[in-house]
Amino acid sequence: MPRRPARTAQKTRRPQRSAPRGNPADWPLYEAEVLRGLEEVARTELGTIRGLDVVAAGDEAVRFRYGGDPDRLGRLRSVVAVYAVRVWDVPRPRGLLGHQQLGELTAWLRGVVAAGGHRSLRVSAAGRDSEVMERLTAEMAGALGLPHQPEDGELRLRLRPAAGGTGWEVLARLTPKPLSARDWRVCNREGGLNASIAYGALALAGLRASDRIFNPMCGSGTLLVERALMGPYEAMVGVDIDAGAVACARSNLKAAGRDVEVAQVDALSTGLPPRSFDLILADLPWGDDIGTHGGNAELYPAFLNEMHRLCSRGGRMVVITHELRLFERVLADSPWQGRELAQVYSGGHHPKMYLLTRG
Ligand SMILES: C[S@@+](CC[C@H](N)C(=O)[O-])C[C@H]1O[C@@H](n2cnc3c(N)ncnc32)[C@H](O)[C@@H]1O
What we know:
The protein is an alpha/beta fold. The protein has helices at residues 39-46, 99-116, 131-144, 195-205, 222-230, 243-255, 293-310, 324-332, and strands at 29-33, 52-58, 61-66, 81-88, 121-124, 155-161, 168-173, 212-215, 235-240, 261-264, 277-283, 311-321, 337-343, 352-357.
């Protein structure tokens, strides 16, 4: 499944800036690109940042003003990417080729590149093959000294009519790679969960320092690492039936600097006593790249029963799956109480996250 391939994001250190100052209406404008379904999670995470004012939230985007150090935005975990936004009072993109506008545009972009360390450029815009767009792209590439790589250029620029007004706006991605490509991911596997989705599921399920956490079917360890980075817990262990997955999860945890036990064990026969865990995190096989639909028809009911045995009274289980009809049917016949947390749209898949509670 096209859960995003892992790439190691580049980090560029900038000197710390002092606390936000001045009138919030004058703070620089940014836009966070968000997976559909995670907008509320993103708003909540953005709301924890001092000196950040959300000005608009829509599908797959949250727009905000921020007066603090932009480095902080590169550490957001729920969003795909953050873009700096500038608006020019021009009626058409051709206006950006004017002497003054082009000077302002390239000076602004030089600042973005100096902070982010981008090594190439690409432009996303309606009509990007038009003569004007091609000229604009060539001017920016020349002025910034960056090669134009139309498919995967690191400085991703988006050009569009200004939101709710006249003029055109340019959005420049702050980081060379998407933020969902975490620094800790040194190993990926087929079916690796998008880290922003993992973060969203964990945030929606709620963090408790007293939780004894179990991550059966941990794969490359995305849920383990993201949970370990989010705050304290009582205990956490991951298992996978596949030796390669166990090694992969261990490498990622090591890269994240987190000490979590991972073992090669069948989640359906761990030999652990009843009620060993308070929170179970399960990204089940979706039946396409990992597992099969036929196999899942047997796996899902057995899994729900065994996890019910391992979960404490009042405990919770987060389930992420794309096998929606099967899962909802099996859930209805299980001893769990369940509710949907969110449905996320990512790379052609639209998995749901559920929160199950054990009475
Ligand atoms: C969808 S993948 C998990 C992906 C993981 N969340 C990640 O980010 O890499 C499902 C995993 O379940 C594992 N698995 C399947 N059946 C299992 C079982 N009975 N016990 C333990 N692991 C199992 C597979 O080996 C696979 O790694």
